[in-house]
Design goal:
Layout lengths: L6 E6 L3 H12 L4 E5 L7 H7 L5 E3 L4 H5 L1 E6 L8 H8 L4 E2 L1 H8 L4 E5 L4 H14 L4 E5 L5 H7 L5 E5 L2 H5 L8 E4 L13 H9 L7 E5 L3 H4 L7 E6 L8 E6 L2 E6 L2 E5 L8 H16 L4 H10 L8 E6 L2 E5 L6 H9 L5 E6 L8 H10 E7 L3 H8 L4 E4 L3 H11 L5 E4 L12 H13 L5
Length: 447
């Protein structure tokens, strides 16, 4: 029996993305309902205050309500393998996401950036470049604010720069980026994807309908995404074409270069580490593909500083340097942070490992690591992977990890929170984890 359509859209998940979608659709006069499996969704009160006619249904997903929707708007944090969503797919119902709604509404050019690591930094770099070039730019997406929130706040923006996750790209079909980039690919979210091939396919969707494609020549997963009609711009450090954005030598110094043309001394970057040099290269390649002025790009990069929770220096306490890298939610990101540190370090890692292998972390710590402290849901798996490479201490939570790291370290050491894991076993998100760490560190006496 055919189910009567009662709702234009049913939104599943009332996080930041779902709230933005609900407000956008309700303001446009759509018949909208919201579902959330949590008994008290964090943005329910805010939505009811703005749009009291939008019902919010909590508890397990209601198959009958879903079946009554012309479209289902799925929040990125909701697993599409839920039986009720599988049933909707079987009925042929369209399942879209907030970014798809944004793509239908936006008229200004869009730069879309994804990847396993560095995408927040590169998104912020590109936005700073555009702002330096005098463009009215709005940046957000996965890093926040949500894309539809950006559109509501900046209706006259001349350019949108979006960080996009694989989950967001899965439910997006209409986005036509002026420039699209996949920065890199490493194992992540393997609790949600069958394998790396499926994860890569989700990321590669960013290149569909893109005018210009920025490709990491060093990453074999990304390199294989080149094609499909977009003009390709390469960047990388080793396996790069002659015309690529690359790291090279000029006048006895190391420079960021466009082919043979030196553009910016690497020493002018305030952010340490090879991974940040590659982030800067990617940002330059994206900005160049978008037609931004090179002088403005270089000026913006020279002034760019660390983002919160991304290898963020918290200063010196008790003779130790404390660094907040809570945004490192996978192994590759933590390895990049470790390689960016020069002093002996004590690593604090742990949380929900999302099905990753931690094997590569041991080798990364073998050179500079003095000790590691692990905590949270996958502490045992982390300890097993690191044993034999560095001294490992397992504790229950972040507070205990901080105390143990202070005890195991020596004056002059770096204490690095770089969890290599998601935070949801103990915190609402990586930001809450990083803020908690910052508060505990800032409560210590200054040196």
């Amino acid at each position: 029996m055919h189910t009567r359509i009662e709702w234009d859209q049913v939104i599943v998940g009332l996080g930041e993305s779902g709230h933005a979608a609900a407000c956008h659709l309700a303001a446009a006069g759509h018949r909208v309902a919201v579902m959330d499996t949590r008994s008290q969704p964090p943005r329910a009160d805010a939505l009811q205050a703005r749009h009291p006619d939008v019902p919010v249904i909590t508890g397990d997903l209601d198959d009958r309500l879903l079946a009554s929707a012309a479209e289902i708007v799925l929040s990125p944090g909701v697993d599409p393998r839920h039986p009720a969503l599988r049933a909707a797919q079987g009925r042929g119902q369209p399942i879209i996401g907030e970014i798809e709604l944004f793509a239908r509404a936006v008229t200004a050019p869009v730069i879309a950036i994804t990847g396993s690591n560095g995408k927040t930094t590169v998104t912020r770099m590109v936005a700073a470049m555009a702002e330096q070039a005098g463009i009215d730019v709005a940046a957000g997406g996965n890093l926040g604010p949500a894309a539809l929130t950006l559109l509501a706040r900046h209706p006259r923006a001349e350019l949108f720069v979006l960080e996009l996750s694989s989950f967001q790209l899965e439910t997006t079909v209409s986005l036509q980026p002026r420039v699209a980039a996949v920065l890199n690919l490493s194992p992540d979210h393997l609790d949600r994807y069958d394998d790396m091939t499926a994860y890569a396919a989700a990321k590669a969707r960013v290149y569909r309908h893109a005018d210009q494609a920025v490709i990491n020549a060093d990453d074999p997963w990304v390199r294989d995404m080149a094609g499909d009609g977009a003009a390709v711009h390469w960047f990388g450090d080793t396996a790069v074409p002659a015309s690529a954005w690359r790291i090279g030598q000029h006048n006895a110094g190391t420079w960021l270069m466009a082919g043979a043309t030196p553009v910016m001394p690497r020493a002018d970057l305030a952010l340490p580490g090879r991974h940040n040099a590659l982030n800067a290269l990617a940002a330059l390649a994206i900005g160049d593909a978008a037609g931004l002025d090179r002088d403005a790009m270089v000026t913006a990069l020279g002034a760019f500083r660390s983002l919160p929770h991304r290898t963020e220096p918290l200063g010196w306490r008790d003779g130790r340097q404390w660094v907040n890298d809570s945004k490192a939610t996978n192994v590759a990101s933590t390895i990049a942070a470790i390689r960016g540190m020069e002093a002996p370090l004590v690593l604090i890692a742990g949380g929900d490992g999302k099905g990753q292998s931690f094997a590569a972390l041991g080798a990364a710590l073998a050179g500079t690591g003095r000790a590691a402290v692990v905590f949270g849901r996958d502490a045992a798996a982390l300890a097993e992977a690191l044993a034999g490479h560095v001294s490992v201490t397992a504790v229950s939570d972040l507070d205990a990890a901080l105390q143990a790291a202070r005890r195991l370290s020596r004056p002059g050491d770096v204490i690095l929170l770089s969890p290599a894991c998601a935070s949801l076993d103990q915190f609402i998100d990586y930001r809450a984890r990083g803020e908690h760490f910052r508060r505990r560190v800032e409560a210590m006496p200054h040196d």
